[in-house]
Structure formats: C-alpha cells, structure tokens
Amino acid sequence: MRDGSYTYRLFNRSDFSAFWALFTDNLINLMVLAGICQFVFQMPAEIVYGRIVPGAAIAILAGIAVYVWLAKRAAEKSGRDVTALPYGISTPVMFVYLFGVVGPIYWSTNDPLLAWQVGIGAGFMGGIVAASGALIGPWLKRVTPRAGMLGTLCGIALVFVGTVPLATIFENPFIGFSSMIIILWGLVGRFRLPYNIPAGLLALIVGTVVAFAIGEAKISAEGVGFYPPLPYVGDLIAGIQYLFANPELFLVLVPVQIYNFIETMNNVESAEAAGDHFPVGTCQVTDGVGTMIGALFGSPFPTTAYIGHPAYKRMGAHSGYIIGVGVVIPFAAFFGLLAFLNNLIPVAAAAPVLVFVALSLITNTAHSVKTDHMAAVTIAMMPHVSSFLITKWGSLIAALAAVGVAGMPQLGDEALTAALLQQGAHFEGHLALSQGAILTGLIWGAMVASVIDGNFRNAGGFALAAAIMSSVGIIHSASLQWPELSAVSGGYLISAAFLLIYPLFHKEDDMVNGNAVVDEPPQATTPAE
Description:
The chain is an all-alpha fold and about 525 residues long. It contains 21 helices and 2 strands.
C-alpha cells in the first residue's frame, strides 16, 4: 500500500467522460428492449414504460450500489485508485429472453400480459441460477487460462458489440460518421476536444443535431409521466407457475443463465487483467440477486457486470461514472423520459460508443495475455462468428417470409442444408458452434492455452468437461437432453483421451515446448499518484 493517508475518491474528472459511454450503452439496451416489447410483442406502454423499464432501473440501481462498495473496498485494500465494474442489462442474454422466452409465449397465446408475466418469472428463476455460479465461479476462475475467458469475451465484442453497431453506423452514415469520428478522436485516439468536452457527450449531441437536420429525430412528450417502481408479486407468481407447467422453457433460461454467470466471471477476469481485483463469487451473487430484484419489480431481463471495464479504466474513471448511471437511468425510467430519449437520440449516434468498447476490450486482451496465447484467444472468438451467422441467416429467412415469399423452408430443412453446403455455407457446423458459443469459446481457448503451456492434464480436463456438456445438450445442442453419445461428444472424448494418456508414454523432455514464451515476473513499480 502507499501509506495510511490514501483515500479513495469516488469521483474523478475522468468519470464524466466514462459516464457518457456507460450511459449510452445502457440507454441503447433500454431503447431496444422497449421498442421490441412495444412494437413486436404489442405490449401496451403501461407495461413497457410503467413496469419493465422502472424494474430494470431498480435492478441497475441495486447492482451499482454493490459495485461501488466493492470498488471502494478494493481501492482501500490495495492503496491505489480502482475503476468500478460497469453494470447493466446483459445484451446477449436480453435478446435470448426476448426471442426465446417472451416472444414464443406471445406468439403462441397472443397475450402480451401473459408474455410479460412469464418473462419476469423466467428472470426471477434465472437469477437464482446466475447467483449459484458463486459456488463454482472462484474454482473455475483458478483453472481456466485467462486467454480462454477473455478470448470468448472478445468474440462477443467483435461480432455483437462492435460489428452490429458498426453496421448501424453505415446504415445512417450522415449521423453515424458524425458521431464516430468524434469517438475515434476523443476515446480511441485520446486527443482533447474543445473545452475538454467528453467525447461520448459531444458524439451524442452532434449525431442528434445532424439527425434533426435530416429529419431523423423529433421531440415528443409521448410517454412522459410518473411511473413509480412497484413490486408485482402476483404477476411474478403467475409467471413462475406457468414456467413449472411448461418446463421446456427451463431449457432456454438455464443454459443462458449459465452463460450469464460465466460472462460475469470473464468480465471480472478482464478487470483483473487491467489491474483491478474483485471477488468473482460476490459479483456473481450480485448479478443474480439484481436480476431477481428486477423481476420482482417488473423487468424480465438479467443484469450483469458489463463487458468493457478496460475501456473505462483506460479513461481514468473511478466509481463516479456508474454512480451517475445509477442516478440518471432510474430518474429517466421513473418519469418516462426513456420514451422521450427514444424519439430524440438516433441509434446511429450512440452506436460508435459500443464500437469503442469492443475495440478497447480486444486491444486490452492482446496486451494482457502472452503472445503465444493469442492463438487461444483467436480460436475462442470463432464460435461467436458462427453464432452471428446463424442469427443473421435466421433473420434472412424470416424477412423473406415477411415480404410474402411463398414456400420458404426453415433453417435446418434437409434440402436447404444440402443446398447451403453446395454453396460453401456450412450450416450444420456453424449451428453446432453457435449453440453455447460462450462456453465453447471458453473451452477451446482454455484447451489451446493449456496445450501451449504443456499443461496437458488441464487441457484434457476441459475436453472431458466439453464431452459431458455436449452429451446433455448444454453446448452444441438446441435443448437439454438425457446423456447420449453424439459425434461431437465422441470427438471430445477422443481429444480428452489423447491429451490425458499420450503424454504418459513420452519422456519428459519430449513434452517441453522449446518455443513457448515464459512469463517473466513483473518488475516492482511505484503506483502512479
């Protein structure tokens, strides 16, 4: 520690810039989920802006309170400045809940109220699963190489956090480019802007002004009002009862919540790579309990420690930036200002911030793992490319059906699969990789990193775990099942057997990788004041 006079300051000048980046990230998620619930699932504004959005705000507020406390405790323990973990609604899990739980109930019953009730029931039960990750999270963190955990996060960052917003920018280039160049200048290049205006704020202002100029934004008070957060115990119980009456829905929420607590673990590892240490078990419990609180107050959507801590660390933020989000998001939610902002700020103006978060995470990962382990990082990213392809192919099929193309086959149709293969589109392989992509990326990244280090027992253990998970449908399958030996699980067993048995029949010298880069012990440095 520095000395007994060190005092952690919750607020730092850099928190202002970081606030606009994290606020924009949360705002985009809330805008997207509100739009889908209202216009795709036909939920009335009273449910969307009166229950879901305030419930999400309560969940965000509860989690932020814990993460501020954890940052303060970590700073006082280490005697240096610490950046609090960002927190909010998990973007990938949000889409799974939208189209894997809420959507199917609405489409099968045409009842938006029931769809919402089942959604909050699924959120509450999923929160229990996410919190249970604390039982194995610390152990899993110890045995999993950093390249595996960060590599699978990089895959999400590349295709979903970065590429999709970048495409949004190119859909509205006048707006998107106007904001993007400011983000590149102020956040990526880290050059000063006039009067030290935060780049995220200026990007939103400029993008919105351009949108007004070309008629892509408007000022509307529709939806503005007072929406106090209220517990919906009766609706929650009704949703949970429906879940137990239709247990097939657990096949959606259990695997995705396993993903959620692993995402939290990965994000904690990402923060550690940037120099800030947090207890992974406490973070997983926080995310699970936050999700349960949100469900009780009307939000179906799980919360999590956010991807992108290294970006905020690089900006010099402390805890003030998440405190600001914890104040502004609930205020906007309780007074219906989200509907106002939804009309005012175009998505293309906010999207460059997400591109910056993706760039920062991938760059920080490259600096925080051994050079040889970049092969592990790369292979961990690949399943997410497959996930992206499957998602977009499904969207294409749905779009063709929506415009009246008759006789459209569904993805997975035998004739369509054969035709895709003839055209070089390996549907079956990409489908297998996409199912449980976060776990698949972590497993393959950990296996490759362990092999590079000559830790064959660890690599074989991950291959054996993958064989078990694939046999019951946690990965490489659309649903859970009784254990069965499939081609994929058999392949993992062969890999595990090779990794665990083959090294036993060779001399120790033969098992040493002479080209491996050995980590050098870090040199002692004096923390910057």
